[in-house]
């Protein structure tokens, strides 16, 4: 008989988004979903996630299946592996000495970074939240022990106060008030953002949307008084991209809503062709760790 998924252990950390009561598995988990003591039900999917967004849902557009497939292929080729290593190192240091840490990836996408971070912990327990069912389907595949929940980060999180040791937030929306509430006092938030100059060479080839860099929105200020910065690391990653890589990189993010795939394809083939098949592009990231103020 197969053993029960470890994600079951995390259900007591969840709260019903309608009434705030505790949740329990409604049968085989996650396929048969969750229900609260007052009878509110949340559908599970046999692909391994639970959908807690009910009613009118959200006004935000989730990443499409095409965007998720492009992201999966681009990340799977290892282009951003050094960012994954940095996130794993930062989280590993911050959680040293924390037994069975609870990690929440807020905007986990396909689970690529959470999987890298979890490799540091034999006893880590992980929650992945994202608006995109397509993304969570892949996250559930690479993280079979994680609890994957479809949720909108702009709404109150369906998690108990002080339930989480570390929140990972990689190129995804941030809800500082809710992040502070669900973190344990002294818990950490690790944020990856694009840095000024990110993918500048690519901008000369394809008209990309401006990215919000950490400088342009002064991340620390937007997080408010609940957090203090403990560490910030700048990463500069030289990439050599062929035309397929370029198309995936452009189409895996919000640019996909604004550019025709055929136009990107043509521009990418011309740019990579001119460079002997590869375009040199520099990715620039900032990984910043914050500590939730308060005593542990
Ligand atoms: C640029 S992707 C980053 C995904 C992942 N962290 C990574 O780096 O591979 C942004 C992610 O945020 C998710 N997202 C966007 N708005 C959201 C919201 N309001 N609530 C939850 N997730 C959201 C998208 O579905 C997408 O997976
Ligand atoms: Zn309820």
Write a structural description.
- With 296 residues, the chain is an alpha/beta fold.
- It is built from ten helices and eleven strands.
- It has a single domain, classed as 3-Layer(aba) Sandwich (Rossmann fold).
- Strands 4-7-6-5-8-9-11-10 form an eight-stranded mixed sheet. The protein has a three-stranded antiparallel sheet with strand order 1-2-3, with no helix packed on it.
- Helix 1 packs across helix 9, helix 2 crosses helix 3 and helix 9 runs antiparallel to helix 10.
- The radius of gyration is 19 Å and the shape is globular.
- The mean pLDDT is 92.
- Bound molecules: S-adenosylmethionine and zinc ion (ZN).
- Zinc ion (ZN) binds next to loops.
């Amino acid at each position: 008989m197969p053993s029960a998924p470890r994600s079951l252990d995390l259900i007591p950390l969840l709260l019903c988004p309608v009434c705030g009561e505790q949740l329990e598995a409604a049968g085989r988990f996650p396929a048969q979903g969750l229900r609260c003591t007052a009878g509110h039900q949340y559908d599970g999917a046999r692909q391994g996630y639970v959908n807690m967004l009910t009613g009118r849902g959200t006004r935000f557009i989730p990443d499409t299946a095409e965007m998720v497939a492009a992201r999966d292929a681009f990340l799977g080729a290892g282009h951003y592996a050094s960012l994954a290593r940095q996130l794993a190192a930062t989280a590993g240091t911050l959680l040293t000495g924390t037994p069975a840490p609870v990690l929440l990836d807020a905007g986990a996408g396909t689970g690529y970074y959470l999987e890298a971070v979890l490799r540091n912990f034999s006893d880590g327990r992980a929650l992945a939240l994202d608006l995109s069912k397509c993304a969570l389907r892949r996250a559930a595949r690479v993280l079979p022990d994680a609890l994957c929940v479809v949720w909108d980060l702009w709404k109150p999180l369906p998690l108990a106060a002080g339930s989480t040791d570390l929140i990972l937030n990689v190129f995804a929306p941030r809800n500082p008030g809710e992040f502070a509430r669900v973190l344990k006092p002294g818990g950490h938030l690790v944020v990856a953002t694009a840095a000024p100059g990110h993918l500048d060479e690519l901008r000369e080839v394809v008209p990309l949307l401006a990215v919000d860099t950490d400088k342009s929105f002064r991340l620390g200020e937007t997080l408010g008084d609940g957090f203090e910065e403990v560490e910030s690391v700048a990463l500069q990653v030289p990439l050599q991209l062929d035309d397929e890589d370029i198309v995936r990189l452009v189409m895996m993010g919000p640019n996909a809503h604004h550019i025709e795939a055929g136009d990107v394809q043509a521009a990418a083939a011309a740019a990579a062709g001119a460079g002997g098949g590869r375009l040199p592009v520099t990715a620039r990231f900032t990984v910043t760790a914050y500590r939730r103020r308060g005593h542990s």
